[in-house]
Amino acid sequence: MNKVKLDEIVDSIDIQHEESSFYLNKKTGKVVIISNEETSAAENINEGEENIEDYPDWQQEIIKIAVDIMNTDDYIELPTKYDIHEYNIMKEFCLSVEDENIKDSLLDAISGKGAFRMFKGKAYEYNILEKWYEYKNEALKQIVIDWFNENKIEFE
User: Fold this and answer.
1) Which residue pairs from 31-36 have beta carbons closer than 8 angstroms and sit at least 24 positions apart in sequence?
2) Alpha-carbon distance 80 to 65, whole Å?
3) Domain assignment of residue 63, given as a range
4) What is the pLDDT of residue 132?
5) Do 50 and 29 share a domain, yes or no?
6) What is the mean pLDDT of residues 13-25?
């Protein structure tokens, strides 16, 4: 496998959502995104309940990849939001803020309902939103580096 680009994996884990899973193809070093619908289709095909031809042409290629993910070791799932714990990253950022008033305000914002929205609003209000994004990006990079090392994947 070619060396995988660190920033590509960081960007991929940052845009993850509930409806899809993200995988690294260990042979090509490329990230593939498989929707829950395509995963279900691949499971049905694997179990012989459906045929790939039952799906539209545009969807067949990605379903074939989903089947491949289930049946080979060529893919590895990227760290998920459950591995990332963005709330903890947000809290660590709050604790890193030197101004005690801003720190306390941010910590208040993340306790309770709507923590992410409230936090971003406060970060914007204090003109530190860009610092937050930089901090978060560095935290995600470290998570990905640890993941690369754990999975013995070379990166650049």
Assistant:
1) 31/78, 32/62, 32/65, 32/69, 32/75, 34/62, 34/65, 34/66, 34/69, 35/62
2) 19
3) 17-77
4) 98
5) yes
6) 93
